[in-house]
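Let us work through a complete example step by step.
Step 1: write down the sequence.
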Amino acid sequence: MMMEEKAKKKKTIIVSLIGVLLLIVLAIGIAYAAFAYTKTGAKVNSIVTGILDMSYTEDSNAISIMNAVPLSDEDGKTQTGSSNVFDFTVGVTDPEGVTVNYMITVAKNSSSTLPDSAVKLYLTSGASDTQVLAPIKMSELSQTTSSNNAGAPAGEYILYSGSTTSSSSTTYHLRLWLASDYTGSDIDSPSYRLKVNVYGRAEAL
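Step 2: predict the structure and record it as tokens.
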């Protein structure tokens, strides 16, 4: 009888220890999700924990120009319509005083045939189209390094970076066009495709 009771107690202790270990692993996983966020290309994504909720929505996966004619900055900035303007929203909810560093980047699709120096980008925000990034050639954008505080991989082109300690939601509008000084004519079916990515990381408390 004593042997059976000891065996039951030993089994209970082992099961309890396994349960505690599982809870620890789960807690570590949740803590990591709260402090690191990466969003690249999916339609809608959201990570929610007790500290951080970052979301990024988009109407399509990428923006591209196909067989376009060169445009002046004045004309490029006033383009309208879903085929010319890429709209997306970046939000941070209830960071509870934690500083959230985030970065909006673009990555060139390998199928693009136009050089970076042939393409211009223009980023605005809100209903009033407030300028965030003035018209600039892709080749003139800064690139991410491995030590950036938003957790973005090295080698992507930076559109915007910032930080916040409060809830926010911003809608951005990205326009892309063929630069007016591009004179290349030796490319069949010229094209340029980009993917917009958002990265975010909360600073450790």
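Step 3: interpret the result. The chain is about 20% helix and 40% strand.
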